[in-house]
Amino acid sequence: MVRYLLLSILLFTVLSACSSKEADMEMTSTPANEDAGSVSDNVYWVLEVAIKAGEFDNFKELMGEMVEATQANEANTLNYQWAISEDGQSCHIYERYANSAAAMTHLGAFGEKFAERFMATVEPTRFVVYGNPNSEVKEALSGFGAAFMAPFGGFARQ
Fold it and tell me: How large a percentage of the chain has pLDDT more than 90?
C-alpha cells in the first residue's frame, strides 16, 4: 500500500512538472535538425534497478517498448542504453538528453505511458544525475530519490 502511495506521489510530481512542458518546449527545446546543444547543456543519468523475482520477461518486453517509443518520438534523447547483469537480476539504464527540456519531455512520456508498469517490475537501487539540470528537472527527479552530481572537470569529444 505504501509503495503505491509513493508511486502515486511520484507520478503526480512528474506529471505536474510536465504539465506546462509544451509551452516551455516551444521556447527552450533544440529542434532535431539543429545542433544538440553544448555538452554543458546535457543532462544525463544512470538508474540502477533490481529486477523483481519472476518479472524478467515483463521487464524485457517493457524495455523494448520504451526504447522504441523513445527512439521514435524524442529526437533530443542522445543516448538511451540499457545494460543487464550476467545473472539477469539487475539493470543499469544510461540516459542522456540535449538539455533540460528534452529530459522533461522524456519524463512526461515515461509518466504517462510506462511508469506504473516499470515500477511493478523493478526496485530502483541507485539513481545518479549528472550535468546541469534546471530546477524543474531536479524537482521531478527528486521524487525518484536522485543524487545530483555537478560538473567538476574534464571534457567530452563529439
Answer: 70
Instruction: Classify residue 41 by its DSSP letter.
Output: G
Mean pLDDT of 23-39: 44
Count Cβ neighbours within 10 Å for each residue of 12-23 and write b for 16 or more, e otherwise. Answer: ebbbebbeebee
Task: Tell whether pTM > 0.70.
Answer: yes
3-state secondary structure (DSSP) of residue 93: strand
79: nearest Cα among 141, 115, 131 = 131
pLDDT at 52: 98
In the chain, where are the structural domains located? 2-18+40-149
Joined together, the cell numbers standing for residue 117 give 508498469
Q: Which fold has domain 2-18+40-149?
A: Alpha-Beta Plaits (3.30.70)
What is the mean pLDDT of the segment spanning 76-83? Answer: 98
Lateral strand order in the sheet of 90-97? 77-84, 90-97, 43-51, 122-131, 147-149
CA 49 – CA 99 distance, rounded (Å): 24
